[in-house]
Amino acid sequence: MPTRLHVDVPHAHARGYDVIIGSGTLEDVPARVAAAAPAAVYALITPDDVVEPWGRRLAAAMLASGLPTELITTQPGEAHKTRDEWARLTDRMLELGCGRDCCVIAVGGGVTGDLAGFVAATYMRGVSFVQVPTSLLAMVDACVGGKTGVDTAYGKNLIGAFHTPRLVVIDPHVLSTLPLRELRAGLAEAVKHGAILDEAYFDWIEAHADAILALDDAALEQLIARSVELKAGIVMDDVFEHGRRAILNFGHTVGHALELRAAYALPHGFAVAEGMIAEAALGERAGVTEAGTQARMARVLAALGLPASASADITGLLESMRLDKKSRAGRPRVVLLERVGSVARDADGAWTHELNAEAAQHAIDGA
Amino acid sequence: MPTRLHVDVPHAHARGYDVIIGSGTLEDVPARVAAAAPAAVYALITPDDVVEPWGRRLAAAMLASGLPTELITTQPGEAHKTRDEWARLTDRMLELGCGRDCCVIAVGGGVTGDLAGFVAATYMRGVSFVQVPTSLLAMVDACVGGKTGVDTAYGKNLIGAFHTPRLVVIDPHVLSTLPLRELRAGLAEAVKHGAILDEAYFDWIEAHADAILALDDAALEQLIARSVELKAGIVMDDVFEHGRRAILNFGHTVGHALELRAAYALPHGFAVAEGMIAEAALGERAGVTEAGTQARMARVLAALGLPASASADITGLLESMRLDKKSRAGRPRVVLLERVGSVARDADGAWTHELNAEAAQHAIDGA
Questions:
Q1: Residue A237: predicted pLDDT
Q2: Using an 8 Å Cβ cutoff, are A110 and A142 in contact?
Q3: Interface of A with B in 89-128 (CB under 8 A)
Q4: Where are the alpha helices (DSSP H) in chain B?
């Protein structure tokens, strides 16, 4: 039996949605989509590197179930998560005659979910949306929460919208075709969930690192389910990121800036891993984070084959961080841990702390 | 004393907002904006043909009140309500370092409101938004309801989002610089409000046509206030256009197709006037609309100097109408009146009726 988690969305224009997790659930996608997101036509958006073996197969299964489906491919990778690619996709849907009663299905990783989600959010002022994540990063993190968007030369996800899916179907079997490096990248977000919310889960990940990397079914299902559950709990609390949801950005202030500097050649998860180390070091130096947290973080990241040290040039990253969405009046802010499993609030009770770049640099240099 | 109308928005992530209507209220914009939409910086977006005399003056007043304000100009006209112009505006804001704590102020007509609203809806996944409409069309119609968007080669407003403003300030004095043709265009939407919802208002417009066209303060304030009130009533009922809100599209199925065919050289209000005549003729021929409605519609439109007959080639417009957002499974739908002041529901209780193109053509040919 697949695991079924329900994400409740407490506002009028979006319903709650189910996240279905289980090996083999890919087979059920047509039936589940037809029930959760009835539509006149389905625009199945999938990148060139996922269309085989998953995208085309799913489109065929949809058609075989009598669901009108158009397969639309995109260029893969963060470099194509742009306004141009979004415009091309919306034009293609217009050309196909998709109406407001269509549904967009994203079959791919985090990039595809963000991009196709932004298409769904803005096509005819919003059409329904289904996520079938095929990367671990998308499964444990990006597929839940309704954030959609594209990158610009100024940074990641700076243009976008909140758009809640109607359904998310996660089949860990799909990970069999994922490069190991991408599997590792996804684990960084799972570690983050443990770091900010659940020490026991953090420790469980370290203990099960080998099983997870070996794609053990039971371990993967447990990992994905716990991460989705933790993230959904936060998202339900604060759909539009007015407050506590910001803690999901632990590791991301520095992480996003690193990605921008690397022109997105650095996988998101690797940047976040380095970002978490940097931000743990920063927290310890500021006396906010329990001593030894950075070392513990480094241990689990190393076990997963992720960067376990930070080489960031913080002052050099400052300009990139200024446009981070957590910034206030142009001053970057950062999420700091209290200890593993818990986030520290700042003196004003905020979930983020103003970043002191000089102190940050000293912390990183010593990390 | 200006009129203050409150638009309630019954969902969690947007608050209700005030619409302030009164001659001279432009002077109060900085104080009202500071109270309703506090922000680290204001991006005041205004087209090249409104920057003098209104946009620059308002930006100066904001700065004089100690509110950090960036004046950003756009190319005027529907031809520039595009994804490209939207991308340019968002880039400009990124370049200026605007954060998620900024606020976009649209100072201009309907095009500016739609375009700047889409910027606000998508900049960092949504920032706050204020409307200062300077055309009658924007005052009586576009500024209320939260619809934002851009056009594509396939049609109007096909890409966009719902994004609720924090405040709308309407100063009818601004209309003194509006070309008469644009004033007339705005009146088409007011006539529409009467036609679908309020027979007494419909008659009042006809009786006061001369005073309105002469820019009589009292007549304009009354006109704008009643239109805003009628529209707000509908919008509050159905923010995301799942049902009754569709009646605001009376005249628009044919109207949008006419605009598209004319490559937007035809002002929206003129297209809507012709569309209302066509759709009234269509309704009468279908036996849905009370006989004589088309003639009554023609009389008030003529009094306002608007098109009072329809020359539409409906079958030729069919392809354009197929992508109309009211379409279902690619079949265009149209709002039909029962009589002046009331909309007819179709056999299934829907607010729109499937368009029978051939019957439509016969109706128009006889109109």
A1: 79
A2: yes
A3: 90-91, 94-95, 97, 99-101, 121-126
A4: 29-36, 56-64, 83-95, 110-122, 136-137, 180-197, 199-207, 209-213, 217-237, 252-261, 268-285, 293-303, 314-322, 357-365
DSSP-assigned beta bridge partners for residue B105: B44, B130
Q: How many whole angstroms from its chain centre is CA B100?
A: 27
State the sign of the Cα–Cα–Cα–Cα dihedral B200, B201, B204, B206: negative
Q: What are phi and psi of A265, to 5 degrees?
A: -80, -20
Three-state SS at B217: helix
The HSE-up count of residue B271 (CA atoms within 13 Å, CB side) is 21
CB contact A82 to B (< 8 Å): no
Q: Check pLDDT > 50 for residue A12.
A: no
B285 close to B310: Cβ distance less than 8 angstroms: no
DSSP E strand stretches across chain A: 3-7, 17-21, 41-47, 69-74, 102-108, 128-133, 147-152, 155-162, 167-170, 333-334, 336-339, 342-344, 353-354
Averaged pLDDT for residues A300-319:
83
Is the bond into A53 cis (omega within 30 degrees of 0)?
yes
Q: Which residue of A has its CA nearest to B119?
A: A159
Mean pLDDT per 10-residue segment, chain B (367 residues): 83 77 95 97 97 96 98 94 98 96 97 98 97 97 93 92 95 94 96 98 98 96 96 86 89 90 86 95 93 97 94 71 77 94 92 82 68
Give how far B122 is from chain A: nearest CA, Å: 5
Active-site entry in B80, B231, B285, B353: B231
Convert the pLDDT of each residue in A203-245 to its tens digit: 999 999 999 999 999 999 999 999 999 999 998 878 777 788 9
A279, A252 in Cβ contact below 8 A? no
CA distance A164 to chain B (A): 13
Contacts of B91 in chain A (CB under 8 A): 152-154
Structure tokens that stand for A228 in this block? 């989705």
Task: Determine, for residues B161 and A126 on separate chains, whether the beta-carbon distance falls below 8 Å.
Answer: yes
Nearest CA in chain A to B158: A124
The answer to whether residues B28 and B11 touch, using CB atoms and an 8 Å cutoff, is no
Q: Which of B91, B121, B160 sits opposite A152 (nearest CB)?
A: B91
The ipTM estimated for the assembled molecules is 0.89
Taking an 8 Å cut-off on Cβ atoms, the answer to whether A162 and B95 are in contact is no
The residues, any chain, with a CB within 8 Å of residue A326's CB and separated by 6 or more, are A246, A249, A253, A332, A333, A334, A352, B100
In angstroms, the separation between the Cα of residue A252 and the nearest Cα of chain B is 15
